[in-house]
Amino acid sequence: MNSFQPYAAMPFYPGPVSIHPRVARALSRDYAPPRMGTEYLELYKSVRSRLQKVLGTKEDVLLGTGEGMLVLWGALKSLLKEGDTVLSVGTGVFGDGFADMAKALGCRAVLVSEPYDCTISASTLERVKDAVREHRPVLMTAVHCETPSGTLNPLEELGALKEDMGVPFFVVDAVASAGGAPVHADAWHADCVLGGSQKCLSCPPDMSFMSVSAAAWERVREVNYTGYDAVKPFDNAVEDAMRFPYTPNWWGVAALDASLSALEEEGLENVFARHEAVARACREGAKALGLTLWPAEDAVPSPTVTALRVPEGHAWPEWRAALAERGLYVGGSLGPLAGKVFRMGHMGTQADREAMQSALAVMKDVLAR
Ligand SMILES: *Cc1c(COP(=O)(O)O)cnc(C)c1O
Questions:
Q1: Residues forming beta bridges with residue 173, ordered by sequence position
Q2: What is the pLDDT of residues 129-171, one digit of tens each?
Q3: Distances (CA, A) of 28 to 2, 19, 22, 249, 324
Q4: For residue 47, is pLDDT > 80?
Q5: What is the mean pLDDT of residues 344-362?
Q6: Is the full-model pTM beyond 0.85?
Q7: Where in this chain does the record put each Aminotransferase class V domain (predicted)?
């Protein structure tokens, strides 16, 4: 009874990651019949205040019952009106993707895009400044960890620029960094920082969360978007329990609570240091094997995921199969990087030093064949 079988193999897929044993225990409980009343709201509030620390905010945080993309769409639809100008700062698939999403919503999208092996630099900031002056965007978007590229964008200066130049709203995708790297929503002047359960928080892919600044709340009320992914139904819903939208997802919220309590016990600083150490071991170990990192020399590599070039003489499908045969599961990449780049997701439970050494040994073995 209740025996959780951790994955026997070496999972280094960049999401969904292997779930935390405590999350497995939380999921194996039966929460039915739904105890809607105060109990669920207490759990919700506890997760909310824990997530405020993870996201670096004193502002509101809400939980979405659906994976990361739910809050990406929900934030944009809830903050934007047709015809608004959106400035997307992209250094990869997700960063550029925000511009496509804005266009799909009938907005005018201005894209400041850098090559996919780069992170935001001084010259990017100059381009952003020019674009803000020329186009006066209502909203700016950026991605913290660009998962397909294995990079981590510094956002402090971009956030300062948003504030200094008076861009009304700033939305940050931190789906692949929240809980694995420091996120500073308030210090970055970010109105909405978006996260998901299946990356650094080692939960199943069924929950998401977002910070909502006071200014963003005002805008949400003004835009008044009301779809299933809307932010608006959560307005005061916790405080006014009778108005809480949708069926309480006990399992999803209890899983997040279990994961966040494990993070708190380890200490957030220690969690971040563990991710950094495993990422460094991955990069150094891979280089020692003759592999090449995908990010450029002057780009910031992510502590949660490492992107490497598929080694010469190996096609991606064969490389993946050879590793999988030996129990090592890595991810491919997306968009223009598909087939060229493979990724080791060392986030959450997978930020494990010993497992990383085993993974490197498997790669060494396959390369020596
Ligand atoms: C995984 C990911 C998403 C999407 O999250 P899902 O849980 O797959 O919906 C969005 N942005 C980034 C940067 C991601 O890594």
A1: 143, 194
A2: 999 999 999 999 999 999 999 999 999 999 999 999 999 999 9
A3: 7, 12, 10, 14, 29
A4: yes
A5: 97
A6: yes
A7: 35-330
Q: Which residue type is seen at 352?
A: D
Return the higher-pLDDT residue of 102 and 9.
Answer: 102
The single residue listed with the structure tokens 């639809």 is 77
196 lines ligand 1 (CB under 6 A): yes
Per-residue model confidence as pLDDT tens digits over 22-45? 999 999 998 876 666 678 899 999
Best residue among 93, 173, 346 to mutate for probing ligand 1's pocket (most ligand atoms within 8 Å of CB) is 173
Number of CB atoms found within 10 A of residue 104's CB: 11
